[in-house]
Amino acid sequence: MDGPSKLRIDPGSVAAPVETLVVGVTRMIELRDFAVKLMQRSDLRVYLHPELSDASDYCQRNETKVDLIVLLLNHPDELTSSDVERICREWPLARVVAVGSVWLASALRTRGYYPVSWLVGVEEAMGRIDAELDVVRGVRMPLPQLANYAEAAGWKMGATRE
C-alpha cells in the first residue's frame, strides 16, 4: 500500500437505518409535510419529540445514540442559545439540520442562535438530509459546525465533495 487509505462505505451496503432525532412541533403546514416525508423514509429510524428536554431525557434513559438531529423550527426564537449549546454538548458527534420555513432568510440576518451550518429552508431540507446521510456513511466530508456563509454555500453546492 502506497499511503493511508480512506474507509469508504457503499451507501447501498449500510443495512441499519440511521438513528435520527427529530425535535419540534409542526405548526406550519410545510414543516408538517416535511416531517411526514422524513418519517416515511426507510433509511432513517426516527425518534420524534416535541421538546428538546423530552428528546434529551429519552436518549439518556434509553441510551440512544443518534447520528442525525433534525430541528423543526416554526419561528426564530423557538430554541435559545442555551438550547444550541445543549445540543452541542449532549450530541457532539451528531450531524444537525435546523429546518425553518419563511422566517429563515431574515433569521440569518438578525439571530445569532444557530450556527450557519445548521440552517436550511424547508424547500431544501430533504436534499440536505441526503447530504448529511452521506457524511454519516463516510462518503462525503462534513461541513464544520462553525462554517461561515461561504463555506456553507460551497458545501451545499458540493464543493467539498470528494
What does this entry look like structurally?
The chain has six helices and five strands, in the order E-H-E-H-E-H-E-H-E-H-H. It has a single domain (15-156), classed as Rossmann fold (3-Layer(aba) Sandwich). The longest helix is centred in the N-terminal third of the chain and has 12 residues, at 29-40. Residues 1-9 have low confidence and may be disordered. It is α/β, with parallel strands linked by helices and 162 residues long. The chain is 37% helix and 17% strand.
Low-confidence stretches: 1-9
- Strand segment count: 5
CATH architecture identity? 3-Layer(aba) Sandwich
Largest beta sheet: strand ordering: 2-1-3-4-5
CATH topology: Rossmann fold
Shape: globular
CATH class: Alpha Beta
Number of domains: 1
How much of the residues is beta strand, in percent?
Answer: 15-25%
- Helix count equals 6
H-E order: EHEHEHEHEHH
Overall structural class, as computed from helix and strand content, comes to: alpha/beta
Which features characterize this protein?
162 residues, alpha/beta, Rossmann fold, five-stranded parallel beta sheet, 5 strands, globular
Summarize the structure.
With 162 residues, the protein is of the alpha/beta class.
Write the layout of secondary structure elements.
Elements: E1 18-23, H1 29-40, E2 44-49, H2 52-62, E3 68-73, H3 81-90, E4 95-100, H4 104-110, E5 119-121, H5 125-136, H6 149-156
Parallel strand pairs: 1-2, 1-3, 3-4, 4-5
